[in-house]
Amino acid sequence: MSLLQAQNVHYIYQSKYQTVHAIKGIHFAFEGGRFYAIVGKSGCGKTTLLSLLAGLDLPTEGQILYDGKSTAERNRDHYRLRAVSLVCQNYNLFPLLTVEENVTYPMLLRGVKPEQAGKTVREKLTAVGLDSSYYKRLPAMLSGGEQQRVAIARALVSDAKIILADEPTGNLDTENSELVFSLLQRLAHEEGYCVIVVTHDLAIADMADEVLRLKDGALVD
Question: Which residue of 46, 79, 141, 148 is 20 to 30 Å from 90, comparing CA positions?
Answer without folding.
Answer: 79
